[in-house]
Specification:
heterodimer, A: mainly alpha, ABC transporter involved in vitamin B12 uptake, BtuC, 4% strand, B: mainly alpha, two-stranded antiparallel ribbon, 15 helices, 4 strands, 72% helix
């Protein structure tokens, strides 16, 4: 994000797009440490790192992958509601294949299963992309179709059962450790870093943003808007399938009904908390990263403080409401007015998209 | 995207009859609803041909009885979607209203107090969402998502376990029924649902508020420039949707005689699917409340057929609904393309 930090000073820090998300994360960690002073400590147990921070990093892996795809989709002005269904399908396919194979513990079987699940995820993503970019159906509806039908398909694959397997190599993906760190975290963070590098060190990120800001204009400027929209949906499907593999490998079971339930909402929350607008255009992968950590920490906080995990949604709602209200155009306008009282009046309740861009510019300048 | 933008339009203009519409002798605005009607009749024919006793008054009457709460939800959702918004909170608000009703009734609060109170809870949450959407310009998707989590969390605060309802007044109200024409069973839920539909129909088609709803969906900026009360209307549609969800919770509690915090998970999607199948465009501005009712009936009929089939597992419902959604969305898209 090209926010000018050179100006320095408190105002610039407050206006930085990651300010409120990071404040929320630090506050959550502070609450945890206050309740349990040893919360942030990490020790070595059984040859790997152990402690609440490691738990957060491991638990957030599937959400990290899903939110990564979601950020890119949202940046093109889209939304992908089908990720939860893809998570369920991917776990169902992989575990059904492993359970049906003659030797569930062989590495070849596991690699084949993973390959199949990822390929299917990619195909489902391409399907979504086809509906959106070729047929021109609104993303929310196009992906709602797969969201509704997808869980039915996953049930079809597992025949309504909760498929369980025992396969050491597959368990490695979700519950294993490498170099003392959870494999799931390494995979998710690795993919995240790779995509972030690809998006920010090449023109790809800018092209994605241009499609999100104005599809028609970007097409006229020679950007292949259709290909880009198609690609981000395909990637979202692929990453969701990988998340589904990690989730199912962690519990070694494929539950078509509950695997990845509401993960699409959590992912959208993470993206929004990270400061990316659902109106498309400018997106911030670092914001998404912090957003995912906030959601993962929040879930752990609720249990740590001793509240029933069933009430977690309530706290999620409060965090979302607080962060989105603080980032809302109306609030930003008030903040920027206060920091520079030069009698410039705020625009009279402008409409969504142009206003978003306009106020962003006001804040960034 | 350009075609998508130009396919949006303002309040329907009854004076202009499009050429294709004249050829088909149906106003093109009604085509999606007619499509839904065709699907509904087709499902009836298929069901009637495959199973004995399918085309009976009892099956049709049960269609309304079992889906009364969904009809109410879909009606509220129609208002929001017509303005171009979306309400993801209805399923959770339905659960919250049901759980609160059961909890208060168990605590001995009279039904006469509980019933208006739980409906008001829905209205209040709708008002909060409306304020977030309008005053703070939070996207409807996010604002209602927050409300969804909020209501679901509150459900568990009220009562994590299922509470049976045995309050005599409430049970009497829930089990009241009458037989129209001697065979068509009508329960109190059906009466309430039909009253809601009638009120919504009147509001949308015969009041200034209704015309403003369509105008906002057609183009918010234009509606504002025309001097329509955009702010008030935008908040009100969420209040209506919240109220409907609160009422839906009451109907669901009457239907199941209990309140449980996990009811209505994913029900917002059923409501949205019903509205879309009923011919309302998610971009806003086009659609009818009666179409949404028809959409609910189509969903209910699919469920009935799968129950009649017996050998088909319940997950086929989801797949069939998904496929139906796909067909409708693609058809709507083609219609929109031809229009532009």
């Amino acid at each position: 994000m090209p926010t000018s930090q050179a100006a320095g000073g408190f105002g610039a820090v407050v206006r930085h797009h990651l300010f409120w998300p990071v404040v929320a994360l630090v506050a959550l960690l502070a609450v945890n440490t206050a309740v349990r002073p040893g919360f942030l400590s990490v020790s070595i147990l059984d040859d790997h790192l152990f402690g609440s921070p490691i738990d957060i990093l491991r638990n957030c892996a599937p959400l990290m992958l899903v939110a990564l795809g979601m950020s890119l989709v949202i940046a093109t002005r889209g939304i992908d509601l089908s990720v939860g269904a893809v998570v369920a399908i991917s776990g169902a396919v992989a575990l059904t294949f492993i359970a049906g194979a003659p030797d569930p513990a062989s590495t070849t079987t596991v690699l084949l299963a993973i390959g199949m699940a990822l390929a299917l995820g990619l195909v489902l993503g391409v399907w979504n992309g086809f509906l959106v970019s070729v047929l021109g159906i609104q993303p929310i509806i196009a992906t709602l179709i797969l969201m509704t039908a997808g869980r039915g398909v996953a049930m079809l694959i597992t025949e309504g059962q909760i498929t369980t397997v025992t396969s050491a190599p597959f368990k490695m993906l979700g519950a294993g450790y490498w170099l003392g760190l959870p494999v799931a975290t390494l995979v998710a963070f690795g993919v995240f870093a790779l995509v972030a590098l690809l998006v920010r060190r090449t023109a790809l990120g800018m092209l994605v943003e241009s499609v999100g800001i104005n599809p028609a204009a970007s097409r006229l400027a020679g950007v292949r808007a259709r290909t880009i929209v198609w690609t981000v949906f395909a990637l979202s499907g692929l990453f969701s399938a990988l998340a589904g593999l990690i989730l199912s490998s962690n519990v070694m079971a494929a539950d078509a009904n509950n695997a990845g339930l509401f993960i699409e909402l959590d992912a959208i929350l993470a993206v929004v908390i990270g400061g990316t607008s659902l109106a498309g255009g400018k997106f911030s992968l670092s914001g998404t990263f912090v957003g995912v950590l906030i959601i993962a920490t929040l879930s752990l906080t609720v249990t740590n403080v001793g509240i029933s995990p069933l009430v977690t949604p309530l706290f999620k709602a409060l965090v979302v409401a607080a962060v989105t209200l603080l980032q809302s155009p109306a609030m930003r306008r008030k903040l920027s007015e206060r920091t520079r009282r030069r009698g410039r009046t705020a625009p009279v309740t402008p409409s969504d998209k142009p206003a978003d861009v306009a106020t962003d510019k006001v804040v960034a300048s | 995207m350009t075609t998508l933008a130009s396919s949006r339009r303002g309040a329907p203009s009854p004076g202009r009859v499009p050429s294709v519409g004249r050829r088909l002798r149906v106003d093109r605005r009604y085509l999606p609803v007619v499509g839904t009607l065709v699907v509904f009749v087709l499902l009836l024919v298929v069901g009637g041909a495959r199973y004995d006793n399918f085309l009976s008054v009892g099956v049709l009457a049960n269609l309304f009885i079992n889906n009364a709460f969904l009809i109410v939800l879909a009606v509220g959702m129609t208002f929001v979607i017509l303005t171009g918004g979306i309400d993801l909170s209805v399923g959770s608000v339905l659960a919250l209203s049901g759980v609160t009703a059961a909890y208060l009734l168990q605590a001995g609060v009279p039904a006469g107090v509980v019933i208006p109170l739980v409906v008001l809870i829905g209205s209040l949450i709708g008002l909060l969402v409306g304020a977030m959407v309008h005053v703070f310009e939070v996207q409807p998707f996010i604002a209602t998502l927050a409300a969804m989590f909020f209501a679901r969390g509150l459900c568990f605060l009220v009562a994590p376990e299922s509470i049976p309802i045995d309050d005599p007044t409430f049970v009497a109200l829930a089990s009241w029924d009458t037989w129209a024409g001697g065979q068509w069973r009508i329960t109190s839920s059906v009466v309430i649902a039909l009253v809601v539909v009638a009120v919504a129909f009147y509001l949308l088609h015969y009041t200034q508020f209704g015309r403003t709803v369509y105008a906002i969906g057609g183009g918010e900026q234009s509606a504002r420039l025309m001097g329509l009360p955009v702010a008030r209307t935008k908040v009100l549609v969420y209040v209506i949707s919240g109220t409907c969800a609160g009422l839906g919770g009451l109907l669901f509690a009457m239907f199941s005689r209990s309140g449980y915090s996990l009811t209505g998970v994913g029900m917002e999607l059923d409501a949205i699917a019903a509205v879309v199948i009923g011919g309302t465009l998610l971009t806003g501005g086009t659609g009818f409340v009666l179409g949404s009712v028809l959409g609910v009936l189509v969903l209910g009929l699919i469920q009935t057929i799968i129950t009649f089939e017996g050998t088909l597992s319940s997950w086929w419902t989801k797949i069939v609904i998904g496929a139906l959604l796909l067909v409708f969305v693609v058809l709507q898209r083609l219609l929109a393309l031809r229009r532009s």
